[in-house]
Amino acid sequence: MRPILMKGHERPLTFLKYNRDGDLLFSCAKDHTPTVWFADNGERLGTYRGHNGAVWSCDVSRDSTMLVTGSADQTAKLWNVQTGTPLYTFNFDSPARSVDFAVGDKLAVITTDPFMDVTSAIHVKPIARDRSDQTGESVLVLKDAVIRIWDSKTGKLLKEETGHKKTITSLAKAADGSHFLTGSLDKSAKLWDSRTLTLIKMYVTERPLNAVAMSPLLDHVVLGGGQDASAVTTTDHRAGKFEAKFYDKILTEEIGGVKGHFGPINALAFNPDGKSFSSGGEDGYVRLHHFDTDYFNIKI
User: Fold this and answer.
1) Among candidates 259, 255, 296, 244, which has minimal Cα distance to 16?
2) How far, in Å, CA of 214 to CA of 247, rounded?
């Protein structure tokens, strides 16, 4: 499995997102400039210029025409995917941490960080004029190791679960929405039932986790992280535990690892077809991996 190295960012990666068709990969980084790539060969298609701070997350609409990004510059922006033109800017009083389109792309949810006297908050923004028929629940993570499920229409808190001992850094939803995976600085990842918040499985690692992802094809989860770059006292990439680790989702056993990054892994994403995955690191690289046939025959 020879990776494709994609060098388009000048600062550490923060987030990766495939579109629904799996032909485009969007990357966010601390260099203020979200980037879009061909997911097959890693060719850079273009950038989205307009943010003045680190871009923490992004999401792309179902038809791949619209991109939403959240940034430390206290804004979230809507973009035209094809032209790179900014369509609208949502302004806040604190950094925008995570963004997500609702099913149907008529609403976007944006979370903001605590900042000075401003507490963290969840903002649901209408994207289309006709938004009266939007209902449903949203799974959201706040920066306090608590998992909460909210009613996106009324704002009512439906369920709450203290899932980790330290900050939850990432969340990945299953393709069917029935369960989701959380990763934490407490060196564990946990699989939860989306409706009941029942803990299903737990994956214990030897590193703080910054990113988690679930295969849409096989019962595999991949976890990434590593000790903070400032704590690494050697150039040996093995010392900081910078591998992407694969686990059997059911048996919770480690089944392999992918090395390559020279710093903590901050972002992970599976292609919707399950045949490739990408990772983004503190080293500023996106690494695109197309799986060999051997991967699909792994037996424990």
Assistant:
1) 244
2) 10
